[in-house]
Every structure is written in C-alpha cells, then in structure tokens.
C-alpha cells in the first residue's frame, strides 16, 4: 500500500511579535515524530511564506516533492492573497491554527483568525471551485490536533491507493441482478486514475481451471480441507476437486493481471457447466487480501477495496436477509462467501448452495451443490460501506455482530445490532426503510472495526453525499432522487 505524503508549510506576517520561527521549527520536529506513529511521510518546507511570490514558490516546491496533503500552518496572521494560491494546488489542503499561549496583553500570533479568514475566502471568493478543506487547531501533542490528523491521514491514504488500483469484472453481472449495474465511467470520474476492466470472460478462468494436473489439484484440495473445520453437507465433498481447480485458476489469473480487487459472476455458468458454486473460492480470495465481490458486483468490489485500504484488513460482501424489530437487529447473510477473518472463534465448515435448479418434490434435502463456507460471525463491531447512485453517494453504517446467540439460516451469516447510520444510532425498522425507500442496491461490503469517521471524511474529499435516513412511515415514501 502506498503511503501518504504530507507537506508542512508556514505562513506569517511580520507585524505580529510572537516567535514564529521557533514555533514552526518545534511543530515540524514534533510532526516528524508523529509521522512515524500515524504512518505518513513528511516534507517540511523551509522558512515562512509571506508574499504571494513566496506562496507560488512554496506550492511549486510542495508539488515537486509529490505531496498529497498540504498542512498550512498559519503561524501568525497572514495575507489573504495566499489562500487561493494554496487552495488551488493539486494536493488536498488543511488549515492549521496554533494556540496563542497568552490570554492578555499584545496578541502574539492571531493564528486562528487567519484560518477563519482563509476558510471564508475559499468558501466565498472561490465558491465555484468547490474546494474541500479541513481545519486543525492546537499544538502537535494536543489530542484534538492528533485525532483530526489521524482520520485525515487514513482517509486520504485510502483515496490515494484506490485511485491507483486495478479492478476487474469477470464474466459480467449475474443475470437478473440488474440493481448491480453501474456505468464504470462514473466510478472512473470519481476515483480518477483507477483502472477498470469489465471485459474478462468466464471462459478465461474456466480454461485455466480444467488444465491443472491431478497433483496440483490434490495439493489444493488438501489445503482447502485442512483450513475448514469439517464438512457440513456431503455434497460439498463431491465438488471439492472443482473448487480446488477454480481456486488455483483465480489465484493465477489475479497474479498474471495484477488486479487489486475483482467481481465474479457466480451465477449461472458454474452451475450450468459443473453443478458447482464458487462461494468458497470467493471467501478464499478475500482471505488472501483480494477483495472479491460475487454476482458481478463491480461497485461493491471497489467499495470493499476502499474498506481494505482504510482498515488494512480483510472484508466480505453480504446481503441483508431479515430484520427483527424486537431487538433492533438485522441479519447479514450470504450463500457462503465470507472470509475466515469473521469466524476465528468457531471456524467454518464446507457446505452447499442453492444452484438454481428445481427442488425435487418429496426430497429430504434441497437441490444444491458445493462449495460454500458455513459460519456464524464472531461478535464484534463492524463497518458497512458501499458506493451508490452515480458514484456520488456512500452508505456508511455500523453495528456489532451478536455471535451465535440467535437462530439463523445456513450460509455465512450473523445478526447485527447496535446499528448506526452516518455515525448516528438508528433502529432496524428505520434502517430497512431507508434502504428500501432510497432504492439502495442489495449488497453490503463489511469490514471489522469502526471506520465511520474515515469514510465520512473521504466523502468530503471526494465530493460524495451521505445516504440520509428516512424514518419509517405507514404511507408510501418517495426516494427523492
């Protein structure tokens, strides 16, 4: 993962008597130490910026250093003409005010007034540019400053990496799953630099899968069986060889093309040709750190990649299968493609999926095929995030899995409680109503931990909108597109 490079620069004016040079040097020294803790590179621009010519020279130097984020410390009151110069630089901009460290007598710096003025200039004088900025206040050791900077570093680092990523759709969108169709041009425009290939065919992976030797397949079968905690349904064993072949095929395919995330069309070609479900392979790819979305959901694959870059952790893609008004929970469920990261306490078993064929009347078990991962998710907090609309909206929800405390259906699943939307608590009925009224697509990328602050900040830098809550009502509610 690429690191974020921060450029620190000072602005000031000669008329304020505070020791601006010493303050800036001390700030730079402390920020260097903090950069190691927060995981960013730091370039410190020498001297101070006073005149517009100084400002243009500083921006040229910062851009020459390849900084991603300019942290402009307004060490003392500074000329208003500097604000547009830094605001229109290629890098994101933060405005930093320092404390006066005095409460009477001569005003030493008048620093806060400067970021107030600069914010106003950027918001009013440059209003047509829609330039996002973030303010900071305090000394480097101040928790207010550190907390705000930590969120910014994680958000901007994730955006930087997402824009440098390669993503593929293999086999198209699963037939009938038309709510997953998105124009990739909107994604490319929003995440300028991302490379998307949606032209790969299922046959490219299938042809690899059938070509492996018996010895190669046997070793992969042994690995897959060893990682699972047993077999829940015998039909999983019947297709374990096919599963091993496609596991090898996807590994080699991704290695050859260098993709960072993929979307797999899991229906119906695998079922038609092999009477087989690729769910367990999807889970295995997520285990290996390759965000993989099923049903050809390219937008969820990119959303999963965003979560990976924020969390440096493994994710999964779920449906919402049920909700319970009694305890304000929702059931996150899918056929069986979840990563083992989510079931470390009790592991998973290999099982089966519905394969789209009619169930036989009087049969003792459903008409099904392997291979899936049957698991109940460990308890703990998670974040849900998915790009939506014309790649101009982002769902940000949180909750905590309850563990194996409520009945649930076979598959990869977990009941989720303690729900919130955009960082604000929400009941299950209001959440469900919001998703349905807003016509939200039926997939939910999930990662462990709470990254709502980082996601909400990323939305600000990217010019995206929240999915606003729609409280439940008995009457028909319009989506307000």
Describe the fold and architecture.
The chain has 481 residues and is of the alpha/beta class. The protein folds into two domains: 4-162, 3-Layer(aba) Sandwich (Rossmann fold); 165-466, no CATH class. It is 37% helix and 24% strand. It is built from 15 helices and 19 strands. The chain has helices at residues 20-38, 52-64, 82-87, 111-125, 143-163, 184-190, 202-209, 214-227, 234-238, 240-257, 269-274, 279-287, 298-311, 428-437, 452-462; strands at residues 4-11, 40-44, 69-74, 92-97, 133-137, 166-170, 195-200, 261-264, 292-293, 315-324, 329-334, 349-354, 368-376, 380-388, 393-401, 412-421, 424-425, 444-448, 465-466. The strands form three sheets. The protein has a six-stranded antiparallel barrel, surrounded by four helices. Strands 2-1-3-4-5 form a five-stranded parallel β-sheet, sandwiched between helices. Strands 7-6-8-9 form a four-stranded parallel β-sheet. Strand 10 (315-324) and strand 11 form a beta hairpin. Helix 5 runs antiparallel to helix 13 (298-311), helix 7 packs across helix 10 and helix 8 (214-227) packs across helix 10. The chain is elongated, with a radius of gyration of 26 Å.
Q: What number is the mean pLDDT?
A: 96
Biggest β-sheet: strands ordered side by side in the sheet: 10-11-16-15-14-18
Provide the low-confidence segments as ranges. none
Number of folding domains?
2
Number of helices: 15
Strand residues, percent: 15-25%
Helix percentage range: 25-40%
């Amino acid at each position: 993962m690429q690191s974020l490079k921060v450029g620190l620069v000072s602005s000031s004016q000669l008329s304020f008597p505070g020791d601006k040079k010493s303050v800036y040097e001390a700030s730079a020294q402390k920020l260097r130490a903090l950069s190691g803790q927060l995981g960013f590179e730091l370039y410190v621009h020498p001297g101070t910026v006073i005149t517009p010519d100084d400002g243009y020279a500083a921006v040229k130097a910062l851009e020459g250093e390849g900084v991603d984020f300019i942290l402009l410390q307004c060490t003392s009151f500074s000329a208003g003409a500097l604000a547009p110069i830094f605001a229109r630089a290629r890098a994101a901009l933060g405005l930093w005010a320092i404390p006066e460290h005095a409460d009477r007598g001569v005003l030493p710096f008048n620093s806060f007034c400067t970021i107030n003025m600069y914010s106003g200039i950027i918001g009013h004088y440059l209003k047509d540019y829609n330039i996002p900025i973030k303010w900071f206040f305090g000394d480097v050791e101040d928790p207010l400053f550190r907390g705000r900077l930590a969120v910014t570093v994680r958000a901007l680092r994730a955006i930087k990496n997402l824009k440098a990523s390669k993503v593929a759709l293999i086999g198209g969108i699963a037939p009938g799953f038309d709510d997953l169709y998105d124009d990739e041009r909107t994604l490319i425009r929003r995440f300028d630099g991302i490379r998307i290939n949606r032209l790969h065919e299922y046959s490219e992976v299938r042809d690899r899968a059938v070509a492996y030797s018996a010895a190669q397949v046997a070793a992969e079968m042994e690995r897959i069986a060893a990682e699972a905690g047993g077999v829940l349904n015998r039909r999983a064993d019947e297709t374990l060889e096919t599963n091993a072949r496609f596991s090898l095929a996807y590994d080699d395919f991704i290695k050859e093309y260098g993709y960072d995330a993929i979307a797999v069309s899991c229906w119906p070609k695998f079922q038609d040709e092999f009477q087989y479900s690729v769910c367990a392979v999807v889970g295995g790819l997520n285990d290996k750190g390759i965000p993989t979305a099923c049903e050809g959901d390219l937008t969820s694959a990119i959303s999963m990649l965003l979560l990976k870059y924020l969390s440096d952790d493994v994710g999964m893609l779920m449906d919402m299968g049920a909700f319970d008004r009694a305890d304000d929970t929702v059931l996150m469920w899918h056929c069986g493609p979840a990563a083992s990261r989510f079931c470390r306490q009790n592991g998973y078993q290999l099982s089966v999926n519905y394969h789209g064929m009619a169930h036989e009347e009087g049969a003792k078990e459903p008409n099904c095929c392997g291979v899936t991962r049957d698991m109940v998710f460990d308890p703990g907090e998670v974040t849900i995030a998915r790009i939506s609309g014309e790649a101009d909206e982002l769902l940000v929800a949180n909750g905590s899995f309850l563990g194996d405390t409520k009945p649930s259906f076979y598959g990869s699943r977990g009941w989720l409680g303690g729900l919130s939307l955009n960082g604000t608590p929400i009941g299950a009925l209001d959440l469900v109503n919001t998703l349905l009224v807003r016509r939200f697509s039926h997939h939910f990328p999930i990662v462990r931990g709470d990254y709502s602050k980082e996601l909400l900040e990323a939305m600000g830098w990217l010019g995206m909108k929240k999915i606003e809550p729609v409280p439940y009502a008995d009457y028909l509610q319009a989506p307000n597109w």
